[in-house]
C-alpha cells in the first residue's frame, strides 16, 4: 500500500533541491560576472527583481485557476496577497502617488487627494484581511495537525526565507556601523545575490504548501454512504 504522505513529501523534497540549486547558481554567478552585469541582475529594479514580480503574478494566476475550479477559500485568499506582493516587488505601490501607500504618512498628508487615500486604503485593507485570514488558517492547521508535516514545513521554510533575506539585506551595514566589521567585496556580492535571488523564490514554497496540503487531505471512498 502506498504511503499517503509520499506525494506531500515530494513537494518538500523538490523545493529543498530547488533551494540548494538556486543558492549554488547565485553564488557562482555573483563570483564570476562583471560589476556591470551584477548590477543589471541584482541591483534595485534589476532582472532578478522583475523575475520575482513575474513569479508572484504566475503564482497568483495558478491560485486563481484553482480557486475557480475548486472554490477553496485558501486559494481565493492567496490571489490578492500574491498580486499585492508582486506590486510591492516592482514598487508599483508607489505608482499611484509617487509615495508608498503602505506608510501611515500617506494617509495623514494633505498632499494627496481623498480619492487616492480611499482607493489605496481599500486595497491595503483588503490585502491585509486576506493575509490575516491566511495566517489564521495556517495557525489552525498547525494546532490540529502539528508542524512536522510537509505543508507546515514548507510554510516555515517560506517564512524563514523571508527573514533570512532581510538579514542578508541589512547585514553589511549593521556589521560595519555597529561592530566595525567591513565585509569583502565578494562577500557583499554573495549576500546581495542571496537576498535578491532567494526573495524571488518566496512565492514557490507558499504554492507548494497549498498543493501539499491538498495532496495530504483525506479522500472519501467512492460510493460510500453516510447517515
Please give the count of helices: 9
Span between termini: 29 Å
Spatial extent as radius of gyration: 21 Å
Percent in helix: over 70%
Structural class: mainly alpha
Order of helices and strands: HHHHHHHHH
- Tell me the fraction of residues in β-strands, as a range: under 5%
Count of distinct structural domains: 1
As residue ranges, the low-confidence spans are 1-5, 220-227
Shape: globular
Q: How many β-strands, per DSSP? A: 0
Q: What descriptors fit this protein?
A:
globular; mainly alpha; 227 residues; disordered N terminus; 77% helix
Description of the structure:
The protein is mostly helical and 227 residues long. It has one domain. 77% of the residues lie in helices and 0% in strands. The chain contains nine helices and no strands. It has helices at residues 6-32, 35-42, 47-70, 73-89, 104-108, 114-145, 150-179, 185-201, 203-216. The protein starts with 5 loop residues before the first helix and ends in an 11-residue tail after the last helix.
State the gist of this model.
Helices cover 77% and strands 0% of the residues.
List the helices and strands and how they pair.
Blueprint: H1 6-32, H2 35-42, H3 47-70, H4 73-89, H5 104-108, H6 114-145, H7 150-179, H8 185-201, H9 203-216
